[in-house]
Write a sequence for this structure.
């Protein structure tokens, strides 16, 4: 099968990935073999390719927003509800131990033994991948493959970031950076009655935000037109943290959605932290987050703005993501 491999982590312009031939993976006990139909292109894939996130497996295949079909089972696998040919989703969280204190209290995203698709194990920039049956998702029947792909990470992690932001009912939410994850979280927030203010540098992103009905759009470092009850930074730029904190009203919460963030400048306590403001990080998501979000996709009619690329142009899609050449999310499509 064809697969992309991160062989020389570094700037995407330097060609860190190779399109190679490798055997179709053999699913282990309890795993599904998945024929990949589409795979979303996430900024985390860029971080792995460029070495911002140190590669955990030499030559790893990125990709963790997979929509595919069940093509086989590992020996003696507990396949749960899945049968051959079923449509299935593969997301970022690949496995947890299920026994640690974090797993037992429902915080499996904090499991020290957790592993991740496209980082610890090969992901969806390939014609086939594998997934433990218990970590695969049933997908809504009324949403097409390309639209679904970015929902499996950008959507789920944006939903967790929104939950972590503790936005009060009818509250004022600030969004910093407006890419794949942000445009999905914004739809959830608006559907739940929030006033959303978007701060972004890109004109395409700004136009997308306006089309979704946000209350205002301004530059990435501009102050919103009113104090914020909560904010989420999606751009992996630490310099935005004090900007967002200064925009919060008393008791406001900033949720940092990225797995990678450049250094945060020194904060001024009185201006940016006093009055019981909070900063919260987001570490992956739980499967419960994923199931909740996928239910809301149908309830609220959440849609993803997508830009298809053939699987053979994954490196180009990542370069375009880095350069901000598209709004919404890129999706790799397998050859028919």
């Amino acid at each position: 099968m064809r697969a992309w491999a991160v062989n020389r982590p570094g700037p995407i312009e330097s060609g860190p990935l190779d399109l190679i031939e490798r055997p179709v993976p053999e699913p282990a006990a309890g795993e599904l073999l998945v024929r990949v139909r589409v795979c979303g292109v996430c900024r985390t894939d860029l971080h792995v390719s460029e070495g911002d996130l140190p590669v955990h497996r030499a030559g790893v295949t990125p990709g963790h927003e997979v929509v595919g079909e069940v093509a086989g089972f590992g020996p003696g696998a507990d396949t749960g509800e899945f049968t051959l040919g079923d449509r299935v989703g593969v997301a970022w969280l690949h496995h947890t131990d299920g026994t640690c204190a974090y797993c037992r209290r429902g915080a499996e995203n904090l499991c020290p033994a957790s592993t991740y698709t496209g980082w610890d194990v090969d992901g969806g920039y390939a014609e086939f991948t594998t997934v433990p049956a218990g970590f695969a998702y049933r997908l809504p029947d009324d949403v097409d493959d390309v639209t679904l792909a970015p929902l499996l990470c950008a959507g789920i992690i944006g939903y967790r970031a929104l939950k972590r932001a503790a936005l009060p009912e009818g509250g004022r939410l600030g969004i910093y950076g407006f890419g794949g994850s942000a445009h999905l979280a914004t739809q959830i927030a608006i559907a739940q009655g929030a006033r959303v203010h978007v701060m972004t540098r890109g004109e395409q992103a700004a136009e997308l935000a306006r089309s979704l009905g946000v209350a205002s759009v301004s530059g990435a470092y501009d102050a919103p037109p009113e104090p914020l009850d909560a904010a989420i930074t999606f751009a992996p730029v630490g310099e935005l943290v004090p900007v967002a904190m200064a925009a919060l009203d008393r008791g406001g919460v900033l949720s940092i959605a990225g797995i990678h963030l450049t250094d945060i400048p020194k904060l001024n306590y009185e201006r940016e932290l006093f009055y019981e403001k909070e900063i919260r990080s987001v570490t992956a998501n739980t499967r419960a987050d994923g199931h909740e979000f996928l239910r809301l996709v149908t309830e609220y009619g959440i849609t993803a703005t997508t830009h298809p690329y053939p699987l053979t142009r994954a490196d180009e899609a990542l370069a375009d993501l880095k350069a901000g050449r598209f709004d919404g999310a890129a999706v790799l499509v397998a050859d028919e």
In short: Residues 156-281 form a domain with the Rossmann fold fold (CATH 3.40.50.720).
